[in-house]
Amino acid sequence: MGMGNLRGFLNQPGVQAAAVCDADRRHLQEGLAEAGLDISCGTTDFRELLAREDIDAVVISTPDHWHVPMALAAVRAGKDVYCEKPLTLTIAEGRILSDAVQRYGRVFQTGSHQRSDVYFHRACQLVRNGRIGDLKKIYVEIPPNNRTCPPQWSPEPVPPELDYDLWLGPAPWAPYTTQRCHYTFRFISDYSGGQLTNWGSHQIDIAQWGHGTDYTGPVWVEGTGEFPKEGLFDTALFYDLVFTYADGVQLFCRTGNGTGSVLFEGTRGKIFVSRERLSSEPEHLVKSAVGKEPIQLYYSRDHRRNFLECIRSRKTTAAPAEIGHRTASICHMGNIAVRLGRPLRWDPVKEEFVGDEQANRLRFRPMRSPWNLV
Predict the structure, then answer these.
(1) I need a labelling partner for 196 at 20 to 30 A (CA). Which of 14, 162, 186, 242 fits?
(2) How far apart are alpha carbons 364 and 275 in whole angstroms?
């Protein structure tokens, strides 16, 4: 998403790329070329970028374990932030970041760009305004792993263009191997939460939006997952999870195919939405006129442009830090329940598991020195 975000923002009016940062010098050079900048505008260390007073906002497209440390540093440095999803690696760090965004008055956009898509907006608008009656169940489907790993692996020399120690950052030290870095990081739990946080953060975000629970979460999670038995990857291959909310609505999250989808089921109908289509039972629901309904959801048709508009207006974005944190927390809850192999009660106000010390310890992870969130 680094190059995709760079190109996407460069295509927006009123945007000037001032600097490019990447711990991989090869990627850094590619980014500088795309932005039309020379090497003096590039750095491998994000702290050099944040020290510049001429930079108003940053876009964070790193592996997940770097999202909060970088975003928190940027917010404290007075920058507005666009940060890729999933917003967090752990539940606890999300609360720290969200509170800091509010404290420092920064504009923040989580890269949950489906909120700026017409299909997802319309689906949630219809559900929230009772077109399917009382909402009872939500079915979320996420894709399976799209990369495989050989059963055996060996340490490799670190490529000369990569600052590997900085790439690891707050994660535990581990020997370099090609599949540890770049895209496949997401299947290693030190850096990500697998497809549940990768695609789940998109589709569960829409489930939250359609349910009207953006600023809270479920009270119960249970389910199963299948893990690799060998190789470098250690996040679950398949999920079958059930989240239950205080109002009795149940969210089912399962591994399926494609890019994922969300199905809302109510007492008078169903609405299905994915990136490819929007449909309903009965069919007329999605074809019905949308007028001045009691509930009007946030309207955005371009996620990056929405961020830029909010930088200028200082208004709240389509996917602020608190929403990104709450969505990511549900994904993390699912991973924790699967790892522990038992149902868990959750208090969405205190943001802690009820009566389960072991589960609560998994809300945060220690960081490798010298990195911290203090």
Answers:
(1) 162
(2) 33
Cis amide leading into 86 (omega within 30): yes
Per-residue pLDDT tens for 242-269?
999 999 999 999 999 888 999 999 999 9
Q: Decide: 295 and 131 in contact? Cβ < 8 Å.
A: no
What is d(CA 12, CA 266) in angstroms, rounded to the nearest whole number? 40
* Distance (Å, whole) CA 100 – CA 75: 7
Place of tokens 């920064």: 106
Quick count: other Cβ atoms within 10 Å of Cβ 260?
A: 23
Q: What is the pLDDT of residues 157-194, one digit of tens each?
A: 999 999 999 999 999 999 999 999 999 999 999 999 99
Pair type for strands 42-43 and 278-281? unpaired
pLDDT attached to residue 291: 72
What CA–CA distances, in Å, run from 193 to 280, 292, 327? 32, 40, 13
Residues 194 and 198: their CA atoms lie apart, in Å, by: 6
Of 257, 260, 157, 270, nearest in space to 204 by CA: 260
Are 131 and 123 within 8 A, CB to CB?
Answer: no
Burial track 153-173 (b if 16+ CB lie within 10 A, e otherwise): beeeeeeeebebeebbbbbee
* Alpha helices for 235-302 (secondary structure H): 284-287
* pTM for this entry: 0.96
Residue 367 has pLDDT above 80, yes or no: yes
Domains present along the chain, CATH in parentheses: 2-113 (3.40.50.720), 114-147+166-290+323-354 (3.30.360.10)
Instruction: Please answer whether residues 165 and 318 qualify as being in contact, where contact means their C-beta atoms are separated by less than 8 angstroms.
Output: no
Supply 174's token pair.
């581990």
Instruction: Quickly tell me which residue has 């590619």 as its tokens.
Output: 30
